[in-house]
Amino acid sequence: MSPHAVEDDGRGRAQQQGGHDDDGGQDDEDDDPDVQDVLGERHFHGDLADGVHAASLCNTQQRGCHRWALCHLRPGWTETCPRSQKVDSHYCPSCLENMPSAEAKLKKNRCANCFDCPGCMHTLSTRATSISTQLPDDPAKTAVKKAYYLACGFCRWTSRDVGMADKSVASGGWQEPDHPHTQRMNKLIEYYQQLAQKEKVERDRKKLARRRNYMPLAFSDKYGLGTRLQRPRAGTTITALAGLSLKEGEDQKEIKIEPAQAVDEVEPLPEDYYTRPVNLTEVTTLQQRLLQPDFQPICASQLYPRHKHLLIKRSLRCRQCEHNLSKPEFNPTSIKFKIQLVAVNYIPEVRIMSIPNLRYMKESQVLLTLTNPVENLTHVTLLECEEGDPDDTNSTAKVSVPPTELILAGKDAAAEYDELAEPQDFPDDPDVVAFRKANKVGVFIKVTPQREEGDVTVCFKLKHDFKNLAAPIRPVEEADPGAEVSWLTQHVELSLGPLLP
């Protein structure tokens, strides 16, 4: 969890780490995804622009700030909340068609109508052209018809390059290459599915056989075992065992596969394999081959379009308090969230606005901006790191922060476009606050580099108040306005760039 720290001039990078005094000890159980999802969360796993890098640090490991969420059992923001993930919907990022999970599984998580370019992996578009065809009744006459083909607007690849026939309709029915081992693979899949079903039935039968037969009769009616303990009648079957047996005739339809045969001699290479000139423009790259592992195309003439991968919308839920942490809307065209309790939407944002020339053992003044992402007032205090702070490990400069408390105005989307709006009056110190605009404040900090070479890194604490908007509703007479407000402390790490000689 971190306020996203991004500098405007691209000279360095800014990192921020969130923490709380009541930090838990469990690790986050949700997998990070390299899975392509569209939670709308801001993932800071890499360079953003011009060498700018923003990430969060937790236990000396970089983690995205989307991992920090508001848990009802823990005060403030935490990353240790055990979470469960649920896929809400599958959809195609090109045509925005959504489908249930069962249908997506049958289609191998790919869209049936959209394709990716096999050369540059961009989305293919359908283009129309006019062709002349002879009439079947009168060959001497011709008629103009429209034909559709696939084309890439980036690398100029078309479906005609690999000999795919044009279609008379704009969607569907495109020719797909036949794999020579498709029947063999399907037969192996059916065989192992049948084998797994038999093993499951045997395990369930052994579990029933190991059950004790001296269970007291007093519990028979309570647990519905009265009919099982009675003497079975002739011609009747036990219902529990009926579902564990194979279907009728399944034993007679047992699938038999032929084992693979090892050959001693392989087909030799052509005589001109090592002597013929190689045209690199016709040879596929490693990435193009790995995208089609079933065919492994060697030449560009063997590249066929691939069906586009589906994306998912997922929701996150805390396993302990059973509250939703993030839940997107079901419609693929919407980027809004029904619930979005991630830290970047509630913690003040830190940005580096201007950096002076930094020199060894010379004090310089750096201008930072603090932005309030919530609609209510936020009180912020900058604190220096204490000696022996376990988070203060990368600092290479001494920092002097303003001792006064800063007040950030609430976020107002309408005020950003209202030029006639009167600015709010705050008791700001001109030596500390450079400017104030809406919910943004410019603050001066003083930095003194302590090393003669390398990048300048400063660390300090950002303490702010947080109003728990998800607190349970209580009667007015029992409500305590101060009980819902808690003070949180975040560890901020700023990389200001290299020293000047």
UniProtKB/TrEMBL annotation:
Name under which the protein is recorded: Dynactin subunit 4
Entry's family note: Belongs to the dynactin subunit 4 family.
TM region(s), chain numbering: none
Ranges of compositional bias, category Acidic residues: 24-35
GO cellular component: cell cortex; centrosome; dynactin complex; sarcomere; stress fiber
Subcellular location: Cytoplasm, Cell cortex; Cytoplasm, Cytoskeleton, Microtubule organizing center, Centrosome; Cytoplasm, Cytoskeleton, Stress fiber; Cytoplasm, Myofibril, Sarcomere
Organism superkingdom: Eukaryota
Region (Disordered): 1-37
Keyword Cytoplasm in record: yes
A Pfam family matched in the record: Dynactin_p62
Biased composition (Basic and acidic residues): 1-12
Binding partners and assembly: Subunit of dynactin, a multiprotein complex part of a tripartite complex with dynein and a adapter, such as BICDL1, BICD2 or HOOK3. The dynactin complex is built around ACTR1A/ACTB filament and consists of an actin-related filament composed of a shoulder domain, a pointed end and a barbed end. Its length is defined by its flexible shoulder domain. The soulder is composed of 2 DCTN1 subunits, 4 DCTN2 and 2 DCTN3. The 4 DCNT2 (via N-terminus) bind the ACTR1A filament and act as molecular rulers to determine the length. The pointed end is important for binding dynein-dynactin cargo adapters.
Alphabetic keyword roster: Acetylation, Coiled coil, Cytoplasm, Cytoskeleton, Isopeptide bond, Phosphoprotein, Ubl conjugation
